[in-house]
Amino acid sequence: MNVIGMMRPKYSTTYLEAEDTLRDGLEIMKKSGYTAVPVIDREGKYVGTVKEGDFLWKLLEYGESILDDVRIKDVIRQGWNLAATDEEDADSLIHRAMTQNFVPVVDDRGCYIGIITRRDIIQSILNKKVDSRYIVLPNEQVSIK
Description:
By secondary structure, the protein is α+β, with helices and mostly antiparallel strands. It has a single domain (3-131), classed as CBS-domain, CATH 3.10.580.10. The protein has five helices and six strands; from the N terminus they run αββαββααββα. It has helices at 3-6, 22-32, 52-62, 90-99, 118-133; strands at 8-9, 16-17, 36-40, 46-51, 102-106, 112-117. The strands form two sheets. It has a three-stranded antiparallel sheet. The chain has a three-stranded mixed sheet with strand order 2-3-4. The protein is elongated. The two termini are 36 Å apart.
């Protein structure tokens, strides 16, 4: 499965920076309409994914007064929504897509380069099935009667 071919590049995705405040994060997520987004550090490395529930639990625990003091990096659950590389195999991507809406993709330095959505994976599988039925090899002749 061609990971890079399915990937939505970083510039076309919504993401947060680890040093953003909770208020910044909530405003960006509200504008985007997404309920979970990747988070990167100052060097562009993927550090995790934050979900709106992560904000909710923190706000319930400490109240609204923390919105401008707490950083996104302080609410990310570690080990959730691990990133894939361009070497990821199809089975692994499909397995991840069963439990999360998107898979973050990183380069060999761990820098965030985009996402693959569940829809992208399903579409790729469907396209492959449809395309393989109609492939005509260069040496084959097709005759229509």
